[in-house]
């Protein structure tokens, strides 16, 4: 704070593990730049909330995570108000320094009517062109029961790529199959893709607004359904935020069960993605074999939790399921069988040139692009970024388990760094990383089960929340880092603000870079290798 001088008005240290820097809104770009340049931190979320009834202003929090030895999140906090002439509130844009902020700033314009001055892209993002002007759903004075009228006659201004021989190919938003809607507009020169523009949010569900009408336990059920295949990760992030606000200690056994289920979720999803990649390269036999393993894991999920998607695992203060000796033995036995078959299938796939050649050098995302866009998870790691929330910001029982075995010895660490620099960020790299993570997840499950505490599964502490208390919850889903900002209401039994930033929200822009110079038939492979979620994006 000292080096920033008058740019920061005050500093609130360690507010539920988030350091808050209060700045004048005019100093936002400089304060954010300082955090990135001097502290090697990365912008990971932009949280806006309508706090006019408590502080008389809209509050924006630019959340950064510090990489390195420090397990720290820092938020630059600023306030903005509507003018006397009822002009929309505004803040300076940070897009020139932080390209990943484009989506965040477009989102707060749609949902709060807050203008980011200087953002070159002022098009709507979440609210499509048929929404009436002047409707901002996340403001407190917007009633969730309001039936918004349709403003017809407007069209979305897609970017037009012009030149001799350039053609446009529109794909979607309705697709053949059961996937959700998304529009992809390709500009091609011959067979090569020279531009791709995505249009999402066709199924915006109003999750964050709906959460404000719910009790805390009801919102937990909602968090599981943000994206069904991330139920453990999202509900875990939500629960951890509330537990930080209440300063609640979760039993060790519950923390371990959370991690076991989180890794089981990672396994079945990675198996499904690898099967999908096999389908898209035309190798249906490999896909069938991998889908059998995915089905075995989902049947295991059903036995231990009552849900194939692991709904109902997390509770505020612990977990809602226990793992007795029979269930633990079943987990160990099933994962061992899955690993044996999995390694045989992968060994076979690696010998098929028709598979490897289609993946190698396809859908390349460079390390610089991955960093500039703030990509997370497998997508970022395959591009050479050394990021993993389980290790960088350990939560639940991850501090007691070896998440990253590459750092065990100096020799392993050196080999790991060399391999990290060699990663191309292509579909083959993402394929291989998922293979590694399936095996690592099984190893971690074995470690956790071998040292499982004989303890309660739910805290006996009374949940003591304070009005408008807030905290950050986070987890590493199979897609990457998910961050949940939770602020409780005045009655301490409901939510004042619930901001969700999933891995898909930050990774979707990466597909527009990944397909450049590829051909259109490669798009399904690139798309599947990124494993993006429509539901996890279109909140």
Overview of the structural elements:
This protein is of the alpha+beta class and 539 residues long. It has 3 domains: 2-117, Beta Polymerase, domain 2 (2-Layer Sandwich); 166-199, no CATH class; 207-530, Cytochrome-c3 Hydrogenase, chain B. 39% of the residues lie in helices and 18% in strands. The protein has helices at 28-39, 101-112, 207-211, 216-224, 231-246, 252-280, 284-305, 325-350, 353-359, 367-372, 377-382, 389-392, 410-422, 427-450, 503-514, 523-530, and strands at 8-15, 18-23, 41-51, 57-66, 72-80, 90-92, 115-117, 166-171, 183-189, 192-199, 314-315, 318-319, 470-476, 481-488, 495-501. A 5-stranded mixed sheet has the order 1-2-5-4-3, covered by helices on one side. β1 (8-15) and β2 form a beta hairpin. α5 (231-246) runs antiparallel to α6 (252-280), α8 (325-350) packs antiparallel against α14 and α14 packs parallel to α16.
């Amino acid at each position: 704070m000292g080096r920033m001088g008058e740019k920061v008005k005050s500093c609130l240290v360690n507010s539920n593990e988030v350091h808050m820097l209060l700045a004048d809104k005019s100093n936002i770009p400089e304060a954010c730049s300082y955090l990135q340049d001097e502290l090697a931190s990365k912008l990971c979320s932009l949280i806006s909330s309508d706090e006019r009834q408590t502080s008389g202003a809209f509050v924006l929090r630019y959340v950064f995570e510090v990489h390195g030895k420090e397990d720290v999140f820092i938020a630059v906090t600023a306030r903005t108000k509507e003018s006397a002439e009822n002009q929309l509130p505004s803040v300076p844009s940070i897009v020139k320094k932080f390209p990943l902020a484009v989506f965040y700033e477009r989102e707060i314009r749609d949902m709060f009517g807050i203008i980011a001055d200087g953002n070159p892209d002022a098009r709507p993002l979440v609210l499509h062109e048929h929404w009436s002007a002047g409707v901002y759903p996340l403001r407190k004075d917007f009633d969730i029961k309001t039936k918004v009228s349709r403003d017809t006659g407007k069209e979305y201004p897609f970017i037009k790529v012009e030149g001799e021989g350039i053609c446009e190919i529109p794909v979607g938003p309705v697709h053949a199959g059961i996937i959700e809607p998304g529009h992809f507009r390709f500009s091609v020169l011959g067979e090569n893709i020279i531009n791709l523009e995505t249009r999402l949010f066709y199924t915006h569900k109003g999750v964050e607004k709906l959460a404000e009408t719910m009790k805390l336990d009801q919102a937990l059920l909602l968090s599981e359904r943000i994206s069904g295949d991330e139920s453990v990760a999202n509900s875990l992030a939500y629960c951890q935020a509330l537990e930080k606000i209440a300063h609640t200690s979760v039993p060790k056994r519950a923390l371990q069960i959370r991690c076991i289920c989180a890794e089981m979720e990672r396994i079945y999803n990675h198996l499904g993605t690898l099967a999908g990649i096999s389908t898209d390269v035309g190798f249906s036999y490999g896909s069938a074999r991998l889908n059998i393993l995915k089905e075995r894991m989902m049947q295991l999920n059903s036995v231990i939790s009552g849900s194939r998607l692991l709904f109902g695992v997390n509770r505020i203060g612990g977990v809602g399921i226990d793992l007795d000796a029979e269930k633990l033995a079943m987990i160990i036995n099933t994962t061992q069988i899955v690993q044996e078959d999995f390694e045989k299938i992968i060994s076979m796939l690696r010998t098929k040139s028709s598979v490897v050649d289609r993946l190698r050098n396809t859908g390349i995302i460079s390390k610089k692009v991955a960093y500039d866009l703030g990509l997370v998870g497998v997508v970022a790691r395959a591009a050479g970024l050394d990021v993993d929330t389980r290790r960088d910001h350990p939560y639940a029982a991850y501090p007691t388990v070896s998440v990253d075995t590459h750092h065990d010895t100096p020799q392993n660490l050196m080999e790991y760094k060399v391999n990290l620099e060699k990663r191309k960020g292509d579909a083959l790299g993402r394929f291989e990383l998922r293979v590694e993570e399936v095996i690592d997840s099984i190893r971690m499950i074995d470690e956790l089960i071998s040292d499982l505490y004989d303890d309660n599964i739910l805290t006996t502490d009374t949940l003591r929340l304070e009005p408008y208390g807030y905290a950050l919850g986070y987890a590493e889903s199979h897609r990457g880092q998910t961050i949940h900002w939770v602020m409780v209401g005045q009655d301490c039994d409901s939510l004042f603000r619930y901001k969700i930033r999933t891995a898909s929200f930050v990774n979707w822009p990466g597909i527009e870079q990944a397909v450049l110079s590829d051909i259109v038939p490669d798009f399904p492979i690139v798309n599947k290798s990124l494993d993006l979620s429509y539901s996890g994006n279109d909140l």
